[in-house]
Task: inverse folding
C-alpha cells in the first residue's frame, strides 16, 4: 500500500511539473487521485487559468473536429458561467485532458505545424473551451432580452454585448462570477495512443451521436493522419502557401477541392463541394476514394480494417500511386469550376470511381472543364430518365447513397454512356506503349540530322531520349510519327512542352 501511495504521489508531482510547463501553477494536494485507477486524476481549475494554458493542443486532429457549436449553445455556456436566470443550478461541464509524462512533437490542428506539447484535450472542446473563446469574441453578441441580476438584485442587460463588455462595465461582478468559477478537469496521465482512442470513442463521448468515421479516425496511425491532412491542410492556406507538406516520407499536397472561405461565425463556405467536415464527411470521402483505389470497396467494414492496419503506420501500400490519382482528380474537379454547381459527397466519390476506371484503362481527360460539365449534365439526364412502373429510376434512388452496391450501379451506368461518346466528355485514349523503341529513336535522330528538336544543338545517341510531339497524356501515340529526338534535359523543360504544343496542330 505504501508503494502505491508513493507511486501516486510521484505522479502528482509529475502532473504538477507538467502544468508548470503549461504556464499554470497547481499544488499537488489539489490533484485528486482515483484510488481504483492509476492513470486517472482530477483537478478544479479556474476558467482564467484554463485560458492561460500553453503547450496544449486544444484541437488534436485525432479526436477534435474544430468548433461546431452555434450561438445558442455558446450563450448557454455564458449564462451558466455568470449565473443567469434559470442557470443558477447549473455547473460548467467538465473537460478531459490527456497529460504526457514528457513533451512530445505533434502536428496541431489549429496551426498545422509540428509543435512541442505537454497535453491535449480529449473532451470538452465544444462544451467549454471554444465556447469561452467565442464569449470574448467581438463577433458574438448576447441575444435580445438577455439579462443577469447583480448582487443587489439589479438588472444588468446583456443584449448586444459580450464578456469583454461585461468585464469593462461590471469588473467586480465579472471577477466574482468568471475568474473565480472553476471547471472540473479530468486528467489522464501518460496513457497510450490506443488508450486515448478507446477513451474518446467509448467513454467520453456518446457513440450514438458520433459517426462511424469519427470513431474510426481517432488514431495517430499514418492512414488516418495523411487522410485528415489532405483535407485539413486547406484550413490554413497561409501556412501551406503553395508548398508540399511533409509527413513522414509522404509529400502531401492540399486537395483544392476542399478549399473555401472561413466566415465570421467560424464556419466554412466551400468553393467546390456542398458538404463540410464537421462530422468528418470530407475525410471519409477521401478515405473511401483510397479504399476504392486499392481494393475497389468502400463499405464500413473495409474502412475499419484499413484504419486498423498497424502496418500502415510506417508505410501505406499503394499510397504513392493513389496520391498521383487523387491529385489529378483534384485538378479535374477544380479547374474552371469555382462558382459553379457544387458537388455532393455522393457525386464526388462516384465521379472519382469513374475517373479512376477511365485512367486505369488508358483513357485520359483531355478537357477537364468539359468533362465535369458533361458528367453533371449526364448525371441529371440519368436521374430524370423515365422507367415504366417506377416513380424514380434506380440511378435516382442511388443518387444519395455511397454504399458499394450503389457506387457500382452508378459506375456501370456512367461508364456505358461515357464510352459511347468519348469526345462529348473531353476524353482521349492513351497509347498503351509509353516508351519509344530504340529503333524508332535512332531513325528519328537520323531524320533530324542528329540535331535536338528543341535546342537545335548536336545530339548524340547516348544523350538522347524519345519525346512525344503530342504528349502521351493527351493521346499522343508512341510511334515514329510522334517521336521527337531530344536531349533528356530539354525533354524535361516546360519550355519544350509549351513550344511543342505551339508548333504541332493536334486533332484528337
Result:
Amino acid at each position: 500500500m505504501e508503494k502505491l501511495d508513493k507511486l501516486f504521489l510521484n505522479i502528482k508531482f509529475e502532473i504538477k511539473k507538467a502544468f508548470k510547463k503549461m504556464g499554470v501553477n497547481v499544488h499537488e494536494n489539489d490533484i485528486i487521485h482515483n484510488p481504483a485507477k492509476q492513470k486517472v486524476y482530477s483537478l478544479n481549475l479556474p476558467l482564467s487559468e484554463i485560458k492561460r494554458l500553453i503547450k496544449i493542443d486544444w484541437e488534436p486532429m485525432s479526436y477534435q473536429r474544430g468548433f461546431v457549436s452555434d450561438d445558442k449553445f455558446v450563450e448557454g455556456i455564458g449564462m451558466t458561467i455568470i449565473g443567469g436566470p434559470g442557470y443558477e443550478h447549473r455547473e460548467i461541464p467538465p473537460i478531459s485532458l490527456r497529460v504526457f509524462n514528457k513533451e512530445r512533437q505533434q502536428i496541431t490542428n489549429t496551426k498545422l505545424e509540428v509543435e512541442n506539447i505537454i497535453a491535449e484535450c480529449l473532451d470538452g472542446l465544444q462544451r467549454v473551451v471554444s465556447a469561452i473563446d467565442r464569449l470574448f469574441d467581438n463577433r458574438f453578441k448576447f441575444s435580445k432580452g438577455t439579462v443577469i441580476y447583480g448582487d443587489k438584485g439589479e438588472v444588468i442587460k446583456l443584449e448586444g454585448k459580450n464578456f469583454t463588455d461585461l468585464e469593462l462595465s461590471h469588473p467586480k461582478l465579472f471577477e466574482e462570477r468568471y475568474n473565480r468559477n472553476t471547471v472540473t478537469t479530468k486528467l489522464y496521465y501518460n496513457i497510450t495512443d490506443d488508450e486515448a482512442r478507446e477513451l474518446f470513442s467509448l467513454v467520453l463521448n456518446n457513440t450514438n451521436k458520433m459517426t462511424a468515421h469519427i470513431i474510426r479516425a481517432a488514431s495517430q496511425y499514418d492512414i488516418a493522419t495523411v487522410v485528415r491532412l489532405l483535407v485539413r491542410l486547406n484550413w490554413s492556406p497561409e501556412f501551406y502557401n503553395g508548398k508540399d507538406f511533409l509527413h513522414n516520407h509522404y509529400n502531401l499536397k492540399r486537395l483544392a477541392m476542399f478549399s473555401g472561405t472561413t466566415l465570421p461565425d467560424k464556419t466554412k463556405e466551400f468553393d467546390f463541394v456542398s458538404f463540410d467536415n464537421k462530422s468528418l464527411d470530407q475525410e471519409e470521402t477521401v478515405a473511401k476514394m483510397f479504399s476504392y483505389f486499392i481494393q475497389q470497396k468502400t463499405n464500413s467494414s473495409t474502412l475499419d480494417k484499413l484504419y486498423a492496419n498497424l502496418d500502415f503506420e510506417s508505410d501505406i501500400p499503394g499510397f504513392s500511386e493513389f496520391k498521383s490519382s487523387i491529385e489529378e482528380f483534384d485538378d479535374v474537379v477544380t479547374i474552371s469550376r469555382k462558382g459553379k454547381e457544387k458537388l455532393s459527397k455522393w457525386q464526388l466519390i462516384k465521379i472519382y470511381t469513374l475517373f479512376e476506371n477511365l485512367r486505369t484503362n488508358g483513357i485520359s481527360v483531355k478537357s477537364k472543364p468539359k468533362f465535369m460539365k458533361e458528367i453533371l449534365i449526364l448525371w441529371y439526364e440519368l436521374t430524370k430518365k423515365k422507367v415504366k412502373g417506377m416513380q424514380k429510376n434506380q440511378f435516382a434512388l442511388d443518387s444519395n447513397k455511397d454504399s458499394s452496391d450503389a457506387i457500382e450501379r452508378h459506375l456501370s451506368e456512367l461508364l456505358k454512356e461515357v464510352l459511347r461518346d468519348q469526345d462529348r466528355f473531353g476524353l482521349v485514349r492513351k497509347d498503351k506503349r509509353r516508351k519509344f523503341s530504340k529503333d524508332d529513336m535512332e531513325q528519328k535522330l537520323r531524320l533530324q540530322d542528329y540535331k535536338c528538336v528543341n535546342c537545335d544543338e548536336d545530339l548524340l545517341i547516348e544523350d538522347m531520349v524519345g519525346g512525344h510531339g503530342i504528349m502521351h497524356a493527351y493521346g499522343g501515340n508512341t510511334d515514329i510519327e510522334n517521336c521527337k529526338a531530344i536531349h533528356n534535359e530539354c525533354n524535361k523543360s516546360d519550355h519544350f512542352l509549351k513550344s511543342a504544343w505551339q508548333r504541332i496542330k493536334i486533332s484528337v
User: Anything to note?
Assistant: The first helix runs from residue 2 to 21.
